């Protein structure tokens, strides 16, 4: 497995300021965490998503 950790510098509350993704051996995204300016957290996995995270 591989991981990607990206930080965005902006002030738009509609988009995450940090995103952490887990990739499988084929480099497909299988899990994702998104961190927002307002402190909310989004989570997405194969069959589950919470808050504002995009579906994987």
Strands ordered across the widest β-sheet? 1-2-3-4-5
Order of helices and strands: EEEEE
Mean pLDDT value: 86
Sum up the overall morphology in one term.
flat
The radius of gyration computed from the alpha-carbon positions, rounded to a whole number of angstroms, is 11 Å
Largest sheet: 5 strands, antiparallel
Could you give the count of β-strands?
Answer: 5
Helicity level: under 10%
Summarize the structure.
The protein has no helices and five strands. The chain is an all-beta fold.
What does this structure look like?
The protein is an all-beta fold and 56 residues long. Helix content is 0%, strand content 48%. It contains no helices and five strands. It has strands at 2-7, 18-23, 29-35, 41-45, 48-50. Strands 1-2-3-4-5 form a five-stranded antiparallel beta sheet, with no helix packed on it. It is flat. The chain starts with a strand and ends in a 6-residue tail after the last strand.
